[in-house]
Amino acid sequence: DTVVVLFDRDLRVHDHPALAAACEEARQVVPLFVVDPAMPEGPRRGFLAECLADLRGSLRERGGELAIRRGDPVAEAMRLAGELSAQAVFTGLDVGSPARRRQRRLARECANARMEFRGFPGVTIVPPGALRPSGGGDHYRVFTPYWRAWSRHRRRQVLKAPGMVVVPGGLDPGPLPVPGHRPHELFRGGETVGRRRARQWLRHCVADYADGHDDLAGNRTSKLSPYLRFGCVSPLELESLAEDGDAFVRQLCWRDFFHQVTEAFPRIDRDDYRPRGHDWHDDRDAAQAWKEGMTGIPIVDAGVRQLLAEGWMHNRARMIVASFLVKRLRVDWRIGAEFFSERLLDGDVANNHGNWQWVAGTGNDTRPNRTVNHLRQARRFDPDGEYVRRYVPELAAVPPNAVHEPWRSPVGVGGYPAPLVTTD
Ligand code: FAD
Predict the structure, then answer these.
(1) Whose C-alpha in 12, 20, 103, 391 is 20 to 30 A from the C-alpha of 283?
(2) Cα–Cα distance measured from residue 396 to residue 107, given in angstroms and rounded to the nearest whole number
(3) Does any ligand 1 atom lie closer than 6 A to the CB of residue 258?
(4) Which fold has domain 124-156+192-264?
(5) ipTM exceeds 0.95, yes or no
């Protein structure tokens, strides 16, 4: 018998529940990825192409193959399953409206074709929906009680990569997508790179995370987010290896937290989770300056320019930059979230829109009116201005005590704009 395994945000062979089950239960397994032709050209597409090349290589090493098709994942999975007279389609389960619609359609089409459909959790450590607050409700709205319940929850076993993958003879592999852009050299896609990075991080750096993670100029966070986003690295396996890494594991829990919020509220990318009647300013010029890293506020511009250059931004900078847009410029969080999700290698609905709503005060923050003072944050987390100078070269000559407020600087700032707003 034959099982098609439809990959999506789980581009790995280690700890892959659907692949492991298929290899154990079926004689022949057909790993499949369907490229969405509508995916915009850009670094994320380049990262995906590298992930697929790596996954194909790992499957071939095990005697298998990765079939690649283009189009609608449901239609392509059903077409291939039909051609190969497969008995079942297995896939990983994900959250958010499009993913859930796709899973429902796939289940329906399988039922119509009298094929088995099976969905496997695996995108998070604890499956969304597995934990329910004792006071009622279908998900946790507040992080700390979730963290407590999450820490106590029993984990499934971390699964080994299959030793062998047997594909049906004559399977057409299909071409790898050819990306127009490669991602920044800091982030090469794929499980092989992701596992290497995870190993190095866990061995040498994780113990310093609690002290160092807010240091904007230092590279003291894992930078594993793109690998988690595409599932090159299993969060469960990462957690299981993270000794001395409580502070780091807590961040993985934030990731799970936003996934379980998104499972319960799949319209998180569009609708306010907690509507509070905001009156957003339709200030397109300000939003445009923000998107270009030209607000004249160095800490904000440095963050955005890091994103434009690398496809990634430090978490502390994300908070400052997002808060500046929604709380200071009073621009709708959806505009910022949309921009982030186009540019971030790690951009995904649960984490991106969940965090944006958190910052905007429409999400899960228990103190929705909190404001982030960008100047104070800049002085605290980039005390020497090293981060700002790295991404805003116009300020290279500005002395350290003025680098966060160049409008007070005695030296010229070579074309750098005057600040959009001056008070904090
Ligand atoms: P580390 O600090 O090493 O943390 C390890 C992992 O924990 C991360 O890779 C990530 O998977 C998870 N994590 C850490 N912080 C958070 C958090 N606040 N929420 C959820 N998960 C977290 N993260 C994304 O993965 N995708 C996004 O699209 C995204 N958008 C964001 C938008 C805003 C406005 C803000 C404030 C945060 C956003 N984050 C997002 C969360 C966080 O900034 C990144 O996960 C983190 O900076 C990634 O870098 P790292 O891998 O070095 O993280």
Answers:
(1) 391
(2) 57
(3) yes
(4) 1.25.40
(5) yes
